[in-house]
Amino acid sequence: MATPSTDADELAKFGYKQELDRSLGLFSSFAAGFSYISIMTGAFELFFFGFASGGPGWIWTWPAVLAGQMLVALCFAEMAGQFPLAGSVYQWSKQIAGSFTSWFGGWILTVGSIVTLAAVAVAYQVVLPLISARFQIIGGPSDVGLVNTPGGAKNALLLAAGLVVFTTVINMVGVKTMARINNFGVAAELVGVSVLIILLAVHVTRGPGIVFHTFGTGAGHTFGYFGALLVAALTSAYVLYGFDTAGSLAEETHDPRRHAPPAIIRALAAAGRRLPRHRARGDGGAEHPRPGDRAVGAALHREGDVRRHAGQPFPDRLDHRDYRVQPGRARGRDPDDLHDGP
User: Fold this and answer.
1) pTM above threshold 0.70
2) In this structure, how many other beta carbons lie within 10 angstroms of the beta carbon of residue 252?
3) Could you tell me if 72 and 57 are in contact, meaning their C-beta atoms sit under 8 angstroms apart?
4) What does the domain layout of the chain look like in residue ranges?
């Protein structure tokens, strides 16, 4: 039996006719998976949650989750090489399991995509109004950068809807246009993360030992600090997700058996090795749950400076203070007045 020599012949083996435009190369396939992960979007959106749940030590959940996800990515890469079909998880489960498994997997993938895309789109409210007040269409200055106020929540939904409509139109125009925009965005993100790492490295104020501090976040958990880490690990799991997108575009990729599998692995690996550098080297990573909580970071910084000048070790936590506040709650408030309850 002759070996199929074209991508169309590959599809014919599975009962499909080539209809999608195969215009994606190796970098475009990688960019699709990497942009779905989008470390800058996910890490900046939920870093405050990981820090508040596990203190600086939450960073150890990153390599743990990365290792687990890499095992999943290896399986996905094998599936993408064996079954280079659009639909990723749905098609793979259809080929190796059965109709019910593929139906179930397809619905889970669809619901997951809807939820995660909407969650990322809502994060626009945390960024755009801080760049320019013109993006705060609904609400006032007190809602800028917040999603937990009525005006901020409404504006977040408006910006998210606009982004979803824009990306939908881009995808309807064609995969070539999507690939060009996506490639530019990924290149900009890679450069931006690298520059940010350098800037943070230049302004280091804490040594690597800060990642062993817990700030007492294990108190009250049934499993102690391990329980706190399990909660904080949700941040890492939220970010390191979506690398299978490179396999989903197999029918639109040149020579997918050769390009799709490594694209999945590279997308996850590229994202996985950036956050530890980003967070461990800069002073903002260990001290500031997020840009809006400057008062909390300032309290930690002053506490450490007082102890350092007095020859005392930096404390594991701020005694008698609950610094685990919601996004933006600390803005404009005195650090000693952060008693919002557990």
Assistant:
1) no
2) 22
3) no
4) 18-117+179-282, 292-342
